[in-house]
Amino acid sequence: MDARQRPYRSVLYIPGSKERALEKAKTLPVDAIIFDLEDAVSVDEKENARETLKAALAAGGYGDRVKIVRINGFDTPWGRDDAAAVADMDADVVLLPKVGSTDDLDALAAVTGDLPIWAMMETPRGMLNAPLIAAHPRMQGFVMGTNDLAKELQTRFRLDRLPLQTSLGLCLLAAKAEGLIIVDGVYNAFKDDEGLRAECEQGRDMGFDGKTLIHPAQVDVTNEAFAPSEAEIDLARRQIIAFEETEAAGQGVAVVDGKIVENLHVATAREILAKAEAIAALAS
Ligand SMILES: CC(C)(COP(=O)(O)OP(=O)(O)OC[C@H]1O[C@@H](n2cnc3c(N)ncnc32)[C@H](O)[C@@H]1OP(=O)(O)O)[C@@H](O)C(=O)NCCC(=O)NCCSC(=O)C[C@H](O)C(=O)O
Ligand SMILES: [Mg+2]
């Protein structure tokens, strides 16, 4: 399946050093996994985590889940060795943290070659350079790093995420302009289902493909929020039928449930059905 066509509802971080979690992930219905060598791994564990992860990926068992490896930045003692190791691992994507400019991406691509790159968007400079970062030839996806971003912007936590809206919007615009995948940041309170649901729904309504997660308990809520609902699927089917009938009668505008349906709405309806089918195919 083409990378852009597949679902990215739930994207789970797993510390590369935690063998038990690496094993557990094989049983979880997540669309993608971020195997982390950066912030979830302590300084003392950095070298071990690289080896543990390499062995886990070589052993396999992750099925259809997209395998993304987050390395340390090139401004750390581990970044270059991580990148060289990832180039040799069974990974689908390399994820670079704290991307500030396309120079960071060029340096990584020089080591990882054709491997698709995703960028952690989590610094003020990254926000300002988002269109250039999105247009890099190896770039395939953006991950919002809302914890680092909040720290750098010195914002306070708010349920409505108002202080982050400009940054989220800039990254969404840049990603959509280049046809990238874009997934939202983590919700830290991993036992708060209602808070998670509200943040998922906000991210979904803004146009994110899915959300990054830190704990297995967050998977079900997220998968549900980012999948088309039965009502949306039903409406999409009725819009397509109504528009085709209208077109056959030589008209350009149908009406469904009191609202107009034009060819652009039909394109959205077809995307909804394609997404529902892709999710069903993953589950089967
Ligand atoms: C938050 C945790 C430290 C909690 O871990 P733990 O106490 O082990 O939780 P549980 O006992 O409830 O775990 C139950 C079972 O689930 C497995 N588990 C836990 N977390 C994960 C996971 N992330 N992936 C897979 N499996 C997981 C446990 O092993 C238990 O399994 P079993 O015993 O077999 O039943 C922990 O969840 C954790 O470390 N989470 C990840 C934290 C992380 O990755 N942080 C970095 C990413 S966030 C970030 O950096 C975003 C960005 O950069 C930004 O700036 O915003
Ligand atoms: Mg971060």
From TrEMBL:
The keyword Cytoplasm does not apply. Its EC number is 3.1.2.30. Its cofactor is Mg(2+). InterPro entries: Aldolase/citrate-lyase_domain, Citrate_lyase_beta/mcl1/mcl2, Pyrv/PenolPyrv_kinase-like_dom, Pyrv_kinase-like_dom_sf. Residues 9-216 form the HpcH/HpaI aldolase/citrate lyase domain. Mg(2+) binds at residues 122, 148. GO terms for biological process: oxaloacetate metabolic process. Substrate binds at residues 70, 122. It is an enzyme of class 3 (hydrolase). It comes from the Bacteria. GO terms for molecular function: hydrolase activity; magnesium ion binding. Pfam families: HpcH_HpaI. The keyword Magnesium applies. Keywords: Hydrolase, Magnesium, Metal-binding. PANTHER family: CITRATE LYASE SUBUNIT BETA (PTHR32308:SF10), LYASE BETA SUBUNIT, PUTATIVE (AFU_ORTHOLOGUE AFUA_4G13030)-RELATED (PTHR32308). Belongs to the HpcH/HpaI aldolase family. This is (3S)-malyl-CoA thioesterase.
